[in-house]
Predict the structure.
Amino acid sequence: MSPFVSTETTPSEALSNVAVPEAFDSLWHSLLSHSTGGIVGLVAVRDTEQADKPVVDFRYQFLNEVACRDTRNQQPDSTAPIIGALLSDFFPSIRQTTLWTTYLDVISTGQPRRVEQHYQIGKRDIQVVQSVAPTGTDGLLLTYADSSDLQLLTRRLAHQTILLNGVLNSSPNAILVFDALRDTQQEITDFQLTLTNRQGLQLTGLSDAQMLGYPLSLLYPLTPDQFDRLRQLVRTGGSLVVEKYVSHCTCWLSISITTLNDGFVATVQDVSADRQMRRQLEQTVQELHQSNQSLEQFAYIASHDLQEPLRKIVSFSDVLRTQFAGDISEAASDIVQRMQQSASRMRDLVSDLLNYARLSGTRMAFQPVNLNQLLEHVVDDLEFMIHDQQADVIVGDLPAVQGDAVLLHQLFQNLVTNALKFQSTTPGTPTPVIRINGSLPGPTALPQPLQKSENPPQSYALLTIADNGIGFDEKYTDQIFTIFQRLHGRSQYTGTGMGLAICKKVVDIHGGYITATSLEGNGATFHIYLPVA
C-alpha cells in the first residue's frame, strides 16, 4: 500500500460490505474501528474475456478506519465511497509497483508474503511493513503498520553499540562485565561474562563465540573468602581495587571492580612494569639513604675525632710560646703563631662540619615558633658584635612559622652574623643597618620549587634579611649556599664557608626555600620561605 499520513478527521462512511454473523458483528466493527495498524480486504477482479482470466484489478471489500484514512489521503478530493471501488481508483500507479507483483503472487500460490516499504514524506522517513495473506476465493487480507519509530530506535541502538565497542576497544585496559547467576533461592552461585573488549579477549584467551555466558569460576577461580567478598560487594554496591599476581600470564594485574546492576565491571591493568619500576626506585632510595647515613656518620666521626688532635696542637703551641719563648728565635715564634692560627681555623672548620653533619640526621616534630621572640634572643646573643660595629638591627612584625626553635635560632643568627661581618672596611662607610621583615605572599609570588610542592600555596611565610654591606655578584647565588665555598679570602673576612650551607640545610629540613638577591657594593637581601604555623 502507499504511505499513510494521519489526518485530523475521519470521514464517516461504510467500512465493509462483508456479511458477518450477528454474534460477531460487534467484534468485527470494533476491530475495524480500533485497530492501530491498517487492515484491508480485497477481492481480485479478473478479465473474463480472456482465456486465462488474468487479474486486472482488486476491489475493496472492507477496511478499518486507519486504512480508510490512509486511502483517502491518496485522493483527498474524491468523495466516492471506498467500499466497492477499485484499488486503482485510489492508487492509479499500483500496477507499476512491487506490491502488485506480490498481490498476484499470493493469489497464484496461495502463500502469504511480507513486504517492507520505505517512503520519504517531507523530512520524515517512513518504514511500512505489510503482510499479504490469501483469504477465500481470490481474496486478499492486507495488514500493515508504520515501523518508522522502531527502525529509528534500531538504528540508534546499533550506532550506540558501535560507539560503545569503539570506546571499549580503544581502552588500553581489559574491561569485563559480569552478571550474577542465582539459584532458586536467589542466592548468587556464580557470575557469567556478558561483555568484554578486545584486550579482555586477549587476556582471557576466549573467542567471541566462547565469551558470552562464560562463568567466572572457570575463568578465574576464587577462594570462598574472595567469592563472599564479591557477593557482598554486589549486594551493597561500591567498588574495590586489588593487585594480584597471575601465574599463567606471569604478570601483576591491578583489578578495579565496580558494581553494575546485578553484577560488576572489572577493569584490569597490567602493572608489572610499574611494580618493577617502583621496586627499583625503592631500592635506589634505600641505597641512597644508606649512603647518606654512611657519609653523615663518617663526617660526624671524622669531625669528632679531629678535635682531640687539634686541641693538642693548640695546647703544645701555647706551651712553646709561653714556657719556651726565650729559647726560640723570633722566626720560630712566628711559625708557632701561624701554626696556632691554622689550628684555630681548622678547629672552627671541624666544629662547623660537625654541626652540619648533625643537621643532616635531624628528624623532629615541628611546633609553632614565634619569630618575634626568637629574633629578640638572636639580637641579644649578638649584642657585643652589634655594639662593636655600632650596627642598627630593625626587626618588623614577623609571622609565626612551623618549625624547630633551636634550628631557626641558628638560621637567623648565621644570617645576621653574615650581615654584620660582610661590611665595607673603607673609612667613612655608613654603619651597618640590617632590616628583618616578614609577609605572607600570594600563590603566584612563591618561587617555582614551592609552587610544585605538596603544601598549599598560601602556607608559606616570606622572611627577608636586608643589609647595606658589600653585597656580591648574583652569578654566585647558588655557590654561596654550598659547603666550604667562599667569595672572599680569609685575610679579608674570617669564616669557614659553612655558615650559609648550614642555613640552607635548616631551611631544607623545614621544607622551605632560601635564595638571595644582591648588587655588588650595595648590600644583599636574603629571602627565606618557611611554612606558616
User: Anything to note?
Assistant: Residues 1-11 have pLDDT under 50 and may be disordered. The longest helix spans residues 272-323. The two ends are 85 Å apart (CA to CA).
